[in-house]
Input
Amino acid sequence: MVPADLLFRSVFSTFRSLTTPVVIGLVAGGVLLVALSFLATADWLRLSATRHLAADAAAAAALAAAKSPEAADAAAIAAAEAVMAGADIVVTTERGSARSGPSGLAFAAGPGEVTRAVVSTSARSLLGTPIGLGQRAVTASAMATRAGVASLTERTTAVPELPAVPAAIEARLFGPAGALTADERALLGRAVFRVADLVAELGRTLSTRDGRADGGVAAVAGASFKPSELLAALGALYRDDAKSSSEAAGVLAAIDRLAGAGAAEETALPLAGVISLGGSAADLTLAAPIRPLEFVQAVMRARLAQSAAAIELKSPVTGIDAVALTLKSESTAAAVLIGGEDGLVGIPAIRIDARFTISGLAIPGIEVLELPLQVTLNSGDARIRRISCNASGPEITVVGRPVRASVALAAETAASPAGASDYVRLLAADGLTAWAKGRSSFADDPPVELVFRPGSGDTVASLRTPIDFGNRLERLAAETQVLVSLEGAARDVMSEGGVRDEVARLIAGSIRPIGAVLSSVFATFGIVPGKMDVVAAGAACNTATLLGEAK
Output
């Protein structure tokens, strides 16, 4: 007999031996077990849903209370009731601080900027009803702290010493007709506009260009624009005033010429590299009035981050026959910020490769020296470290550094003496070869912490560490090492020491005109090494950040 048959016979014989009442009891027990399982599952699902809803209500209540500390209880109750959709709840709030504990954040009642909201409600229990436990208490809590949005503006402007320098750079970046006159530069440095107005105009540009229905702050903040589009939007802000004001008409004429100068290649620039918008439409009013010249300079710096610009100048200043410049920005940094903590404004790092052609060498057969310099401007920046929202009003803590600079003879990797790649060849003719090396830089400064209180009129502070760039060039000239090689007939023309002295004399004598060219390049982009003014025009404590469940 097979095992399966044995098993079947055994089970069948067992059930045959059961009496009818026993069978009925087993069936009833099974039905009861299924019913209890169903009720338990329903209770668990209902309890779980209530807990999730209570947690959402607590988070909403904490955020609402943090945003409205003057009416925290009322705001919390309204927010929680909206989430719980008519359920019976009890909402309590209290102020204090949050500290890190072994199991997460721990709330401590008392002084502090943290708001804790506790939402209590109940969930119905079908299993508990027969024994008088039909309602189970559910409690959830959350913590939030008041947060804000602030405005920062980088503001450093200077007047170029040599008009030919900004004219050549602007023509290269904006097009052949894109060079500002000295009067136009002064005019653009006096006029002001509001960020909110510019954003609204750029929203209209987006709607027209892309056929977007949404031209709001979020759409503008994430969009890219050609420089001509940015300048056209800026010019539109002065079009109405230009009908009755000669100064506004002058501003409009200069901006329109820049916008329509006809640059050969226009790359769209992310607006976030010029103006960073992290707030709502209402927050745009926080920004300090911006000068058109500052906006143009920010556009130019953003343009350099897209691609290098090569400029050649003929006799820009007495003592320099010609100079070839290659300008490149390694990153972007918004000149205006409207946003929250960790937001950044500043001046990006810029590298300038320059080759100066200088005549006047008193070496037989060689009259011209080509001096290659590499100038590096380290980024100047200001970052919002904290926006404090307290009873006395908002405070903005900013950490930043001014622009630093270094200058060096641009080294070559070929034709250097004895394989020394840090030397650059200055002269090479008729058996005479001269190499040189030199570097002069400023040490980086530790970050400076600034605290702004916009409500009390404390809006402007400077990140300044004095730098005399001319002094850097003088040190470079004084410390430059020159190596000379004479071969063949060149030995009878001049001694090695004579060549070294003559090269050193010409470099030292060219420091002032070289400094005038380079400082004019800096000023064209609104940069002064060692300086950066920061304007914090306003802050609004209109948001809150959820910290999590209070342990």
The two ends are 67 Å apart (CA to CA). DSSP finds 13 helices and 24 strands in the chain.
